[in-house]
Amino acid sequence: MPRFSVTALGQAGFRLEAGGFVLFVDPYLSDQVEKVEGPALRRLRPAPMRPEQVTDADYVLISHVHMDHCDIETLLPLSQASPACRFVGPRIVIDYLAGKGIDSSRLIVANRDRLQIAPTIEVTPVPAAHKLIEQDSQGFLRYLGYVIEWEGKRFLHTGDTCVHECLIEKVRACGPIDVALLPVNECNFFRDRAGIVGNMSIREAFRFAEEIGARTVVPMHYDMFEPNQAYREEIEIIYTRTSPSFRLVLDPDALSI
């Protein structure tokens, strides 16, 4: 079995590699959010690479159309640097990328059906509640997470989501999760008032992980923008005090799978 490399890119972005196959999820490698929304949303951590340096991407999974997940300043240069790369996302994302000039032959709409993206890699879209599970007039989900089954291992990237019974059911149906990548930046009144759509709290993410049988949890979506932060110390204290059954990994670059 090949060894997996998991690299956190910040926010909800990850790079996964095994056996020479490279998969990105929600890469945000630019400063587009700050350019559009202003200096309050300046990056707190630098991008680990420039999009034009990504010459080895095979697939990019995109959870939804918000610019910190579907960043055209990342995806266009990445598509040029990795000309064989294909892009998977909700229909609203695929329509957006097509409108920005990425050829339709490289775009795959994800909704509810399992996708075979390589001989040993299956991707199952699961609904995300951001804050609600939403679909368009034709029944296509607007927000997704992904269960990635790869060489006998099962990864979950939820995208942006609150805990929802439907999400729990769909993930459980896929089987136990080896590595769960979960947002922990929480919904609250003050973020709502500021126009920031939050996700699970740390406690909710930990309880969700227990309910889906996750063996390892990697928190995400807490380290990029000051108004939307959680602190590592918070995460560590809650993990220590609640003593869940899963392993907590805050630095996935060191994750051994």
Automatic annotation (TrEMBL):
<dbReference type="InterPro" id="IPR001279">
    <property type="entry name" value="Metallo-B-lactamas"/>
</dbReference>
<dbReference type="GO" id="GO:0016787">
    <property type="term" value="F:hydrolase activity"/>
</dbReference>
<dbReference type="Pfam" id="PF12706">
    <property type="entry name" value="Lactamase_B_2"/>
</dbReference>
<feature type="domain" description="Metallo-beta-lactamase">
    <location>
        <begin position="25"/>
        <end position="222"/>
    </location>
</feature>
<dbReference type="InterPro" id="IPR050114">
    <property type="entry name" value="UPF0173_UPF0282_UlaG_hydrolase"/>
</dbReference>
<keyword id="KW-0378">Hydrolase</keyword>
<protein>
    <submittedName>
        <fullName>MBL fold metallo-hydrolase</fullName>
    </submittedName>
</protein>
<dbReference type="InterPro" id="IPR036866">
    <property type="entry name" value="RibonucZ/Hydroxyglut_hydro"/>
</dbReference>
